[in-house]
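Researcher: Next sequence.
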Amino acid sequence: MKRIIVAGIGPGSPEDITPAVTNAIQEADAIVGYKYYFQFVQPYLKPGCECIDTGMKRERERAEQAFILAEAGKTVVVISSGDAGIYGMTPLVYEMKAARGSDVEVVSLPGISAFQKAASLLGAPIGHDLCIISLSDLMTPWERIERRIRAAAVGDFVTAVYNPKSVGRYWQLYRLQEIFLQERSGNTPVGYVRQAGRDDQEIKTSTLQDFDPEDVDMFTVVLIGNSQTYLSDGKMITPRGYGLLAPRSPLPAPREKGNLVPRTSHLVPRENGIGQSIMIQSFRTIESELRRKDWPLDHKWALLHAIHTTADFDMENILYTDPRAVETLYNKVSSGELNTIVTDVTMALSGIRKGALQRLGVQAKCYLADPRVGEMVTASRAAGGEGITRTQAGVRLAVEEHPDALFVFGNAPTALMELCDLVRKGKAHPAGIIAAPVGFVHVCESKHMVKPFRDIPKLIVEGRKGGSNLAATLCNAILCYDDAEQLRPGRDL
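Model: Next structure:
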């Protein structure tokens, strides 16, 4: 029978060759392929089977030889490593059949691809949408390859990289890393496997920012995770979306009499409700549309919350955070050092997630409705002058009872200015300040006044913009900062 069977023999280990392929090899009159791969099929050859090597990079001659033998009436098996249909011989054999007008039957048998084997060794990194890119520019112009790299990075695909390096191609993997870092977090997990399934197999994991292309050679497959991929016990996991386990950044250890008590786990059972699922999708969309891709994680987390709440990408220009302010304040909350939040108005208070407060053991208060506020306002007017506003009075009361609270302002610049005055007088020692009053009178000045307090972690919406909803969402960003690395907002919805 005139037949060519194009077979993928897997990555190299005998147990990864499929029964269909071993049966085909056992029936073959001739095996055509690159000589390096003959060692993997030798045990299955029938007596008298001919092994024909055409040499490396001579795929065309290999296909021609297979047709010559098959047209002479032999059953020929053309072998490729991995899956012959993925960067293998199968497409070429079908093309040549058409070009020759040959009546030889062509059969394609799939094999386990190198990226599949590498993925299984790394854990479960290809659990969601993925793509495969070869960095070899022998038959594909680099400009086209680079467009595909960028599309994969922007599209948030898990990406398998074939032919990452060779003796003559040393810079392409560096360029891929550069492009991905423009579109992905530097903490994105990267796994790479050398000689997958073979005796000298090596398995390594890293992150996109720490990955060293010099650690890779032509026998290596590289797998880059998507925005949801995480590392757990040395394994790469890309969730499919069932919500069974939700990755979290390791939480800061709580303090006990000045000592650190280690936590034991960072995998927490969780089911996403529809509200959280929508919020996660929204955050991914916002992140993809940010002009700057390398914001520090804690600033980006606050920025995503601000844009999500306002649909205003100008936040990228006007949201100021002190370095590591969000992280610092979250650590204070999680350690128990910070347990009180004070807002200027009740609307800002209502926007702080009650589930987060309860989960973390934090109380949130607004003094605006306190009867003592009215008494203070009346007394200030009776004393002459312009008097004080209700929000100013509320801040004074708050400082008396909670001088070290996190103070959150979303409405009243006079209240923020009052706090600044109390800080300067040594009466207030805020754990942090969120400064987002909105309006036209004293708004900008109040924000300028708070900025010089370098020892107080601050989040400031600069200029006239702000609002209670914005102040509340920035507060929520702090309370759920342990979800930032995996970009999973909305836990407490």
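Model: The chain has a mean pLDDT of 90. The CA atoms of residues 261 and 350 lie 33 Å apart.
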